[in-house]
Amino acid sequence: ILPTFSDVGFENLNPTPATLETFTYEVDWNDGTPKDTGTATISGIGGVGVPTTGTFTQSHVYADDGIYTVTVK
Question: What pTM, to 2 d.p., does this model score?
Fold first, then answer.
């Protein structure tokens, strides 16, 4: 599964010079391993009335069977 996001809060409406929004992510696998962090890939540039969309890729192998609650920020 490829995590995706959509953000309607585009804040670069008329900057000088124009800039592109960037998004970061943090994944807590809830098994005591370090959190994974990085910069998301923008797949759709937002604007007035158009949300910015993007994806990020992460994978994880758990050392033991169980039920884990994954937290993504």
Answer: 0.74
Q: Which helix (H) or strand (E) holds 54?
A: strand 52-55
pLDDT in tens, the chain (73 residues): 678 899 887 665 565 555 667 899 999 999 999 999 999 999 888 777 788 899 998 889 999 999 999 999 9
